[in-house]
Amino acid sequence: MSEEKPKYGWYVKNLILAFNTVGLFGIIVFIIGLIILGMLGVILSIIGIALMVFFLWPGIGLAVMNVILDKADSEVQGMDIISKIQSPRVLDIGCGTGRTAIKIAKSLPKGGHLNGIDIYNVNAISGNSLETVNRNAELEGVSDKTTFQYGSATEIPFEDNKFNIVNLSSVLHEVHDYEDKERAMKEIHRVLKPKGFLIIGEWNRYSWQLILYSGIFCLVFQKRKYWDDLIRKHGFKILNYENFGGYVQFTAQK
Ligand SMILES: C[S@@+](CC[C@H](N)C(=O)[O-])C[C@H]1O[C@@H](n2cnc3c(N)ncnc32)[C@H](O)[C@@H]1O
Fold first, then answer.
1. Ligand 1: distance of its center to the CA of 122 in Å?
2. Where does residue 185 rank: exposed (0-12), middle (13-18), buried (19+ CB within 10 A)?
């Protein structure tokens, strides 16, 4: 009998499928363009190349990124502050299937607890649901120190000054309106204890790794300065930021 493994899912799986479908169509158009002679052939070849650059590139790049993530068994970076807090209470916003939240839970010292909230957008991660994250926590042996529930970054379902650490890994770019991002930052500030820590990880628009993975769609993401300004504007002091392959992680304090 095979042992059940946690299922963390693929980020933007539906989008990857759509990109690759259009990209493959681009290959066909390009080949037809090569076969047909004359101006029409040239136009079709150019359209084919454009479809490949715009769609096949991110289609393949993002699939490769997911394969790398599935294989990687890395520690959560920048979480060394956890060990310095007695019985830490951690909130992971946008926990999804628990890829980051469960790693954080594994590093919790005795008496610590992690709460995870998410709106469970199924387009963000395949298999994204409360059932999946609870099952993954069970399989990873952290059920007793984690609680997952439905909840939005813009309306956090917890009282004021509850958490020592709030973590958001690759989440805030999905809160599309700037006003909602501001609402989320105010909510985070509210639920953090005085001197509590905020950790935000986001993709950096012009990093070569992001461009390699997502091609032209790197424009969906913001530059580092954007996050820097948003964090400072909401009463946090940035203590540190680190670059992990195009992914910038800020550690800030209330
Ligand atoms: C790219 S996934 C990252 C998941 C997880 N943090 C990880 O490291 O694997 C983004 C997650 O943010 C969630 N999300 C998007 N908007 C949200 C919001 N307003 N409040 C809470 N979660 C949100 C999505 O449902 C999705 O699970």
1. 10
2. buried
> How far is 88 from 165, CA to CA, in rounded Å?
8
Q: How far is CA 55 from CA 58, 63, 202, 211, in A?
A: 6, 12, 22, 13
Query: Do residues 130 and 162 make contact, with C-beta atoms less than 8 angstroms apart?
Result: no
Atom of ligand 1 nearest to the CA of 96: 27
pLDDT tens digits, 39-70: 999 999 999 999 999 999 999 999 999 998 88
Sign of the torsion angle spanned by Cα atoms 11, 83, 185, 226: negative
Instruction: Please compute the mean of the pLDDT values over residues 167-172 and round it to a whole number.
Output: 96
Report whether residue 221 contacts ligand 1, using a CB cutoff of 6 Å: no
Report field, pTM of the whole predicted structure over 0.70: yes
**pLDDT in the model for residue 206:** 85
**Is the C-beta atom of 125 inside 6 A of ligand 1?**
yes
